[in-house]
Amino acid sequence: MNCIFITIFLQIKYVEMFFILLESLSIFGNLDINTEILIYTSTKFMNIIKQSHLYTDKIKFEINDDYDNLDKACKSRLDLFNLHSIQNYEKVIYLDTDILIKGNINNIFDICKEDIFYAVEEGTIDSKLDYWGTSLFKDEANNYEDKTAFCSGILLFKNCSKIKELFEIIKISIKSNEHFFHDQPYFVYNAFKYNLYNNKLLKEYCVNNNFNSNSNFIIHHFPGGPGIHMKKIPVMNEFLMKLKNNIIDKNIENTKNFINENLLPIINNTTKYTNVYENKEKNISNLVLNKNITNVMEFGFNYGFSSLLMLISNPNLKITCIDSGEDKYTTLCYNKIKE
User: Fold this and answer.
1) How many CB atoms lie within 10 A of CB 119?
2) Vertex 158: Cα angle to 10 and 219 (nearest 5)
3) CA 311 → CA 17, 159, 266, distances in Å?
4) Mean residue pLDDT across the chain
5) Which residues touch 32 (CB under 8 Å, ≥6 apart)?
């Protein structure tokens, strides 16, 4: 079993960001039966998540009600190997909440072959900004030919003794030298020190602050510093809407083509289906993109245009159609769509 590990503490805005991430994961991530989402959070936030229409039985929880400041919240992911749930998983990908998924997440897990951290290249270990541990490395930075560091917002690794030990080393290292940028510098410093990282392979699949909705990346990360969510949420919402519009437009176009080629000839209509109801069509397609919706009852089937759009948008739907049946073409269109 694989695990997507996410921590959510302190501010309700992180729950809002998680919902944006979760919606993108639901629509585009292609989660299989071998992957669960483990949320490490408070009782309050767990209850909010459980009330969402995005909540599924794939989401599991570990609870901690004691983390009441930003530093504790940032370092909460270091508790992973002390959580009971970890025994259920072979591979783990940790994700910050300021992330969107736009491709098959299973392809990310397939990368994980060695007992190391896989992370996204970012910054350098001798940077003046010190986000990547310059003050920890000091002169040691000169020992490394490649000084390229990594962002800790995306971390892929096995559930293995080497990584478990590395987590413990990082926690001990933090206690001896508190850093203003929380735990990321310690992840970088100790991963370098023990040669337990690869910051190259994920570059093909993950990217930071890239706003191209047509990119080939699976994970888009919008970092900007811990606790800084004001600008992230509008950016994430806008990017998710772009992703959804891309697929919605394709769904509508495929529906129109089917109507023009298969349904209009049945009802002896020689015109072409137009964009008169485009806004309505977008709303319908957008609604059923949510994979948690599995059953739909439609009142007023008529010629089945809306049912067709829903099925093209989400082929796993079961739609029950109710109609007076007074139009002689209703049954013919129903049978054609059912083919």
Assistant:
1) 27
2) 60
3) 29, 39, 20
4) 93
5) 106
The fraction of the chain above a pLDDT of 70, given in percent, is 97
Q: In whole angstroms, what is the distance from residue 288 CA to residue 292 CA?
A: 9
Q: Which two tokens stand for residue 293?
A: 């919706």
| CB neighbour burial string for 260-295, b if at least 16 within 10 angstroms, e if fewer | eeebbeeeeeeeebeeeeeeebbebbbebbebeeee
12 CB-near residues (< 8 Å, 6+ apart): 45, 48
Going by their DSSP bridges, the two strands 219-221 and 99-101 should be labelled as antiparallel
Q: In the prediction, which pLDDT does 179 show?
A: 64
Euclidean distance between CA atoms 128 and 117, whole angstroms: 24
Q: Give me the helices (H) in 153-277, please.
A: 161-176, 184-193, 232-258
Q: How many CB atoms lie within 10 A of CB 116?
A: 20
pLDDT of residue 71: 83
Distances (CA, A) of 193 to 141, 156, 166, 275: 10, 18, 10, 60
- What tokens appear for 40 in the block? 């490490």
Q: Report CA-CA distances (Å) from 166 to 35, 143, 197, 255.
A: 24, 20, 11, 52
At residue 103 the predicted structure's pLDDT band, cuts being 50, 70 and 90, is very high
- pLDDT by residue (tens digit) across 177-235? 766 678 999 999 999 999 999 999 999 999 999 999 999 999 999 987 655 666 899 99
Q: How far apart are CA 312 and CA 248, in angstroms?
A: 10
pTM: 0.90
Angstrom distance (rounded) from CA 19 to CA 13: 10
Q: Which two tokens stand for residue 8?
A: 């959510």
